[in-house]
Write a structure and sequence with these properties.
single chain; alpha/beta; SH3 type barrels; Elongation Factor Tu (Ef-tu), domain 3; five-stranded parallel sheet; 8 helices
């Protein structure tokens, strides 16, 4: 097969490309330039997509002996990921930009261009297993990225390769060193790639400005404080609530709800965070759309937030009844559905929590 290897400049994508070469594929490496000012996207091990990363990717391609290109996807990334991220927070939602990037950039814009140029598949360093069109969790549970890949359609999965998902991360680093790849010991990037400081609230305030509103006790309706904007909050948040006194019973308070229209943030006790049912919109299926109720495991965060559930499609919506309540579930997040399997839980599909 002709394979386009997306090379971020990290160890995972470098080894993924190397394994694609070993498998006998005709491999071409490509680094995605996702920002007009790439130097601003890295601070130590935070962020990614800097000129340093592009250079690391090019050197890895040289070691592997494959052609290498840099493609400018900055406009698409800004429109589909960054701008949508800002809009979602302004609307009181909690988006996952990595999931959005996979959906709209790496496996939409990049894959479409790859197919148009005659490639058969896109190869990435994501930690997930994909065999015969079946997407599963990675062997390394701590690095599993199937949650952010659950948004991919059957068609997109049919043109994808995830060569490192069957190997623990420690072994991937050892393999990179054996292959002479200089990125073998390179630290993993952390947090949101376009917010390398890690200060999401501050970054959003720079773009949205101050939008003051009340912090309200969800039980009594009492105004407890004022905030600078709903974009600084997410459901389940405990710290930074802007309240100068504890609850009457001395227990912590949490963000229970966000009302962007009137700028209200509602807070209350932990037990009020319990969610027993989810409604998701725009469901995407790794296989065929299920008919009738489906027993599954629902996951609402990239790591953690799992519960046994029963899911059912109704029109354009997905309804998920949780057998045990989950906390910290926010509109804008994704709910991914899995079917337990000895070879690694199988991804059924996902939807955006409404």
């Amino acid at each position: 097969m002709r394979v386009l290897a997306a090379m971020s400049g990290g160890v995972d994508s470098a080894v993924a490309a190397a394994r694609a070469v070993d498998a006998g594929h005709d491999v071409v490496g490509v680094h995605l330039a996702l920002a007009e000012t790439p130097d601003a996207l890295r601070s130590g091990s935070r962020g990614c997509c800097s000129k340093e990363d592009a250079g690391d990717a090019r050197r890895a391609a040289d070691v592997l002996g494959v052609p290498f290109y840099v493609w400018d996807f900055a406009g698409r990334f800004a429109e589909e990921v960054v701008d949508q991220f800002v809009a979602d927070y302004a609307a009181g939602r909690t988006p996952n930009p990595c999931l959005r990037c996979n959906e709209k950039v790496k496996f939409a814009a990049l894959l479409d261009k790859a197919l148009a140029l005659g490639f058969d598949a896109v190869c990435t360093g994501h930690y997930a297993q994909l065999h015969d069109g079946v997407l599963r969790r990675a062997v390394d549970a701590g690095k599993d990225q199937s949650y952010v890949l659950a948004v991919l359609s059957q068609r997109q999965l049919s043109h994808a390769l995830f060569p490192v998902g069957d190997t623990p991360k420690s072994a991937i680093r050892a393999e990179a060193a054996e292959r002479g790849l200089a990125v073998a010991a390179k630290p993993d990037s952390h947090d949101i790639c376009f917010i390398p400081t890690g200060d999401t609230a501050g970054w959003l305030t720079e773009r949205l400005g101050r939008r003051p509103g009340p912090v309200v006790d969800a039980v009594t309706g009492e105004v407890l404080g004022e905030h600078a904007g709903v974009h600084g909050f997410t459901v389940g948040q405990r710290r930074g609530l802007g309240v100068d006194r504890p609850a009457p019973d001395g227990r912590p308070r949490y963000v229970l709800g966000i009302e962007p229209v009137n700028g209200t943030v509602k807070i209350g006790p932990a037990e009020a965070l319990d969610v027993h049912e989810l409604v998701g919109e725009r469901p995407v299926w790794a296989g065929h759309s299920p008919v009738g109720p489906v027993e599954c495991v629902a996951q609402v965060r990239a790591h953690g937030g799992l519960a046994d559930a029963v899911a059912e499609v109704g029109g354009d919506l997905l309804r998920v009844q949780l057998r045990a309540p989950l906390r910290g579930v926010a509109p804008g997040q994704a709910v991914a559905l899995y079917r337990p399997d000895p070879g690694g839980d199988i991804v059924l599909g996902s939807a955006t929590i409404r």
